[in-house]
Please model this.
Amino acid sequence: MKNIVECIFNGEINENEREYIRTERDKEESEAYERLEETLTEEQKKMLDDLYIKFGGVIAQQEERHYSRGFKTGVWLGLELAAFEPNFRKNK
Model:
């Protein structure tokens, strides 16, 4: 088994390169967006694109915070597991 820390350090694990698997919900949302866009004027399309880009930035910030929190939680869990002594008894 590979060492996870070495893989992260060496760039073998990169979340940005992972393949995104589209769900049925993703497809439905994309189709709804396209249907809406077809009904808009050019000015309205520009406004929708601006909104979509700004909203995407908010989502990216949230994803970064969640990823960071998950990573830190994983590190804390690893530290706790490394210090765990299964044969330790309080009252020997």
